[in-house]
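Consider the tokenized backbone below.
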């Protein structure tokens, strides 16, 4: 640990000095975006997909918070949550899929975040 990484401060106990060390990860330089891993994905924007596993959502418009199971529904990949200007970033649910609202004839859609292994290309 370098001497510059250690600072002194006065503690709550009168007259006692406490040494505070900066974590080593804070001292490391950050990697440039150009050195990051490029994003490579199976599903791209505009791909038609079908949900293959049981996924329950509660945010469908017109359903008033009722549970909607997406298993068997078909939709379109709206965008990817793990792609930031061509650079891979971590995302738990990496694909944003746009589905038509069940029972709505006006063409309204809703978006759900999903994993790639929960859907398949149609």
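A designed sequence for it:
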């Amino acid at each position: 640990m370098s001497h510059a990484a250690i600072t002194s401060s006065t503690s709550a106990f009168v007259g006692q000095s406490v040494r505070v060390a900066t974590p080593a990860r804070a001292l490391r330089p950050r990697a440039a975006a150009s050195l990051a891993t490029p994003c490579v994905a199976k599903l791209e924007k505009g791909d038609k997909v079908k949900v293959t596993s049981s996924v329950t959502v509660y945010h469908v418009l017109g359903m008033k918070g009722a549970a909607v199971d997406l298993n068997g529904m078909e939709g379109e990949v709206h965008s990817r949550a793990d792609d930031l200007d061509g650079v891979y970033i971590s995302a738990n649910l990496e694909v944003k899929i746009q589905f038509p609202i069940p029972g709505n004839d006006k063409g309204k859609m809703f978006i759900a975040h999903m994993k790639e292994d929960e859907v398949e290309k149609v």
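The chain has two domains: 3-35, 48-121.
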